[in-house]
Amino acid sequence: MNRRTAIRRLATLFLTTASLAQAQQPKKVHRIGYLSAVDAATESARAEGIRLALRQFGYIEGQNIAIEYRYGDGKLDRAPELAAELVRLKVDVIVAGGGRWTQAVKNATKTIPIVMVGAGPDPVEAGLVDSLARPGGNVTGITNLTRMLGGKRLELLKIRPIRPMYAS
Q1: Short-list 48, 108, 49, CA closest to 78
Q2: Backbone phi, then psi, for 67, in 5-degree steps?
């Protein structure tokens, strides 16, 4: 066996072994922490909606994501304990419902991203984010600003002239 043949065989063996090793690497399963103030039965519709939305982006529970559910059963004093538990589990992101529950998670971690869902009328006033335009820190999400936006909606309604649908 000449030197070129030996190098080819060694290279082929190396490439075959490398591709097998890559094929055996497990896919990362992203872990989501889900913290709710209410019980599982009350929260089931919202949790199902989140699962369906994730599925539309290719994330399927049990395949490439795992969701750690924690429910407060209406007991506010459980918020810090449950938030700390999710942090100890080292989830990749925490979804928290309600301002006080989001605050408990914010107090428990400065590094894990937090997504607030329905965090009351003003997350800036509650100290959850620096501003709506630039939340800063590790908290983002949606809020219920319906009362605060009422005046702006009325202003927009006044500015737009009403035009007839059909010109004669």
Answers
A1: 108
A2: -115, 125
Q: Which of 117, 124, 122 is nearest to 145 (CA)?
A: 122
Look at residue 28 in the predicted model and tell me its pLDDT. 83
Its sign, for the CA torsion 47, 52, 55, 60, is positive
User: What pLDDT band is residue 119 in, cutting at 50, 70 and 90?
Assistant: low
pLDDT in tens, 74-85: 888 999 999 999
Burial class (CB in 10 A: 0-12, 13-18, 19+), 98: buried
Per-residue pLDDT reduced to its tens digit, 127-163:
888 887 788 888 888 776 656 666 666 666 655 555 6
Contact 99, 126 (CB under 8 A): yes
Superfamily of domain 30-149: Response regulator (3.40.50.2300)
